Amino acid sequence: MVSGAERRQRRGGASNCEHAYEVLAQNLRSRDLPKAVSEEILSMCREPSRRVGDRALTNVITRFQSKKNGSPRLLESTTVELQLAYELERDSTVLAYFNQVACRRVERFVNNGKHHISTITVDFLIVREDSLTLVECKNEDRLEKLRESKPQEWIYANGMPLHRPLLKWAEERGLRYETWCPRYLDGIWLSNLEMMFGAAREEGVNGVTQHLIARIENQLRVSSKTIYELLQCIDKLTVQNIALLLWGSVLYGPERRIRISDTTRFHVFLNKEAAEEHELRVEKQALLDASPVTSWIANASTVDFSRAIERQKALLAAEDHGRALNRYEKRIKKKAPSLDLQDLATSFHKSGNRTRRISHGQIEILASVVKEDWEGGAVSTLSTLCSRVNHALAEAGCRPVSRTTIARAARKVKDETRALNIGGMRGFQSARTASDPRVRTLMAQATLESLQIDSTVADQFVLLYEDKPKLGKSTVYVAVDCNTKDYVGFAMGPGESDRNALGSILRDVVRRHGSLPGRLLVDRGPELTSKFVREIADRYGMSVSFAPTGSGRTKSFVETAFKRANNLIFDELPGSTRNDKKGRSVDGRFKGRATAALRMSRQVEIVESIILEEIPRITDDEGISPRDRFNEVDRPRGGIRISDDDEFMFWTSVPSTSQRIDPCRGLRLSTGTYVSNELLSAARRGQMVEARLDCEDPSLAWVRTTVGFVKAWNSEIYFANGLSLHEKKMMHFRRRTERATKRKEQPGQADSIRQGLAQAVKGELNEKKKIEVDGPRSDESKATVPPSRISIPYDEIGEV
Fold this sequence. Notes:
Layout: H1 4-11, H2 19-29, H3 35-44, E1 61-66, E2 71-75, H4 78-90, E3 94-109, E4 115-128, E5 132-137, H5 140-149, E6 154-157, E7 160-163, H6 164-172, E8 176-180, H7 187-202, H8 210-220, E9 225-226, H9 227-233, H10 239-247, E10 267-268, H11 272-290, H12 302-321, H13 327-335, H14 341-344, H15 360-375, H16 382-395, H17 403-411, H18 415-431, E11 450-457, E12 462-463, E13 471-472, E14 474-481, E15 487-494, H19 499-513, E16 515-516, E17 519-522, H20 531-540, E18 543-546, H21 556-568, H22 592-595, H23 600-614, H24 626-630, E19 640-641, H25 646-651, E20 654-655, E21 667-669, E22 672-674, H26 677-685, E23 688-693, E24 700-705, E25 708-713, H27 717-720, H28 725-745, H29 749-774, H30 779-783, H31 794-797
Helix pairs in contact: 4-7, 7-10, 15-16, 16-17
């Protein structure tokens, strides 16, 4: 039976039974609710009810580190749920909140008038001192589609659509219910929330001294000022300080419509009403520029619009030349005396006979064949689809339909759905339509606040070892800053991507910049969605966002880095696989394996120098390089500041499965026995909690015991001492590879003994059966028995 902890680990979420759960229990005790209702609400919030993102093919899932709850929350969307989570973190009236809450036994309405009972998962349950609120998060387009498809369940109240069954269910239990949706152009608001939350995560509002706050207030008492003007007037004031004060509502500004990093346009106010008035003026113009077409032109066809222009030109020409109007023109003039295009437009798009020429049975057969064969990907051409449709109609005794009718039905199938059924997630991502820019997220406003990390296999064969002619490929990890597009971390090693390489690049980022990112954007690879990453994120308060599978556009910065590396580096070095992709058109002498001549140690030096030093210094159209932007003095700096200490080394090392320490021999792991005086002393005084193998040094193991952290080494410490970081990685990889090959090719001695005993017992049993059937054997037959079937007393063998 799977435990609750294991289920939470599989979901990637955290248990709600922590600080937030205690706050909820205390809040329920202070209310006059029936005991059954209180227990039901507690059971709803004990843990997330479902795995998020199963149906969200385009969403970026975020494992958000909530300070208010004291535990992470797995949020289904960046543009919707994450934005609301930031707002709840800022709201001082919110005590705690839970996500993915299951409301059980909800009475729902069906279109045929019948009722049925079901479970509905709500996005949030918000705990305030005076209320408990269920919140369902949807964007405007989704709410409109639900209202059209389920008019009996969705109603409008106070200008917002509400789910009637959930509203009734919440009122019966004394809860509030509401829906929440982001507005257009809320990407600026989300970016500002991320920057303010990052500033508050590091220091809190108390990080700004009272003397500095007093100087800011003196400047703003006369009139509002921009952030740039405040920075010029007040020494030691930074943009991060302004973001801190905005988060704590000490200062106010147009946070929803102007980015905080836009210091020349962002005005700061002491009065909230003045800030809202200024923001309203900016918002009115912004929404007007981004509003869709609502006039008659939006629904007019090309023919109707062109006819309106022709009519207007003819009537104006008649007036200018004094020509008498004919009967047709008089009728138009009477209908549109002001000669507006809207009144002069025709309505040809509404005319015509649109009655179906095919029967209801033909419609059903056509729809079923299109859904199964065309949408499911069984056929790839329209001709094949026409043959299958007409064949199905003939079997049902119906008349065939035209090719135009079948093509019209096929065009109604979404390209994304068909691509998903044919090519999986990667096919879906390549065929899906682009998102509306008005609802997209923006880049981070502070350096190191958000990083993109990914890996790729180098398109080049190299010599892995110095003393052994073995060819292979290396894996490159790159970390790109989402604010400046600068390359801030690099790791490279042999073999495939794994947790060792991931821990190595996190160490590289901390060594170079002294910070971890506030939010890490990665794909859904096994090493990136593992418990190893979750433990590092929980320990240092780092949020992790997971891009959809096959969606290169979501992490375009790091994908661009790999494209540049392949074009500028690997394709120009010996051993490149560029000719391998051309197939038989290129002779085998010019392909990767035949031309490989570069040692991997030399490859790492070349790639690291180009990726970290040369490519980031390529200037853009403005003549500024990403490295110059990153090194700007007045640019806001984010991230989680940590030091490269032993604790960080422990958490970035790969966990081991060993559970105990021998007080005399030390720690026995798959890579050898690790011993140190400190380890043996800790084993005598306490118990082992966890052991980890260092991701870079093969001779080092980190052990956490009940009495503290200790180090231990194996016999390879003398070989690893004095080696470079790359040489240690190569030594680590070689030991793992050789050990795995040895275990695979040479079975252990104990296994050989067990196999021999099993064969002997099997032979003895076969001989006994033969004696029972054929009678006792003669002495000659006994002498011819093979050695493997010599009789062995069963009592000496035991049960095998």
